[in-house]
């Protein structure tokens, strides 16, 4: 026993190195330390009823969610650069028939409308959250953020930052398929 | 002149506050409560600043929200709970003591106890003292040493 004591630092080092390797791998996959866990997971969406971005079109309200259909709720803004990089992915998702509800966060209505007119509109409905209060109720701390809402209207997943193709393949699409069963 | 302006700017830096006059509550006592609470709430955008210190728009929104809750009659704990319901314990700069944070709160003391224990154990049973005092040289060793010392002088001039 005594003679093996000299191995202790080596074992500690290997343990630490192993842990670093695991974390680096996780960070590579997008699980960075600045991604905060959401306390809203598995809770019903907070109550809200937001006015439409475009006059005359439907807005977004919590009452419409959880009617038996899996949906995404996407917080975005015209002033948010990462939202632009996420936009093509949302368009692709919408093309596959995924119902995405957009919430334009602390934005000028004209700016939000102009972006959708220019780049295309992936949303089944878009609302404005001018005060940002609904976003706070969701626990949003920066746009874009995307929530997967299950058939009963509960939040099942939160994506912080733009959805990458990897996020889509590894997490969001499998979850949508799973929840839609 | 430029140096003067620079000095003045640097000096005024620490005095500048994120809280804007238009956010403050008319009731000084309630405003003081809001300030005290918001000093312990993390700005989620900057993550190492309190919302009281941060100029981030979200921090301002949270300050206003906090003041609204207080005006509506929330206790300090209720106002804080309103935010932890949405953002989790992460919004607290002082993490609560609960099983998931035991390691954080008590880990350093545990390390101290373990380290102190090892030191004590080594002091009693260890070899530190024994190794430090070398046994005296035997007669044979003394003779050998003398030979070596002599050898040093005689060695002069050798290749």
UniProtKB/TrEMBL annotation, chain A:
The keyword Iron does not apply. It comes from the Bacteria. Belongs to the thioredoxin family. DsbE subfamily. GO terms for molecular function: disulfide oxidoreductase activity. It holds the Pfam family Redoxin. Residues 39-181 form the Thioredoxin domain. One of its GO terms (biological process) is cytochrome complex assembly. This is DsbE family thiol:disulfide interchange protein. The keyword Isomerase does not apply.
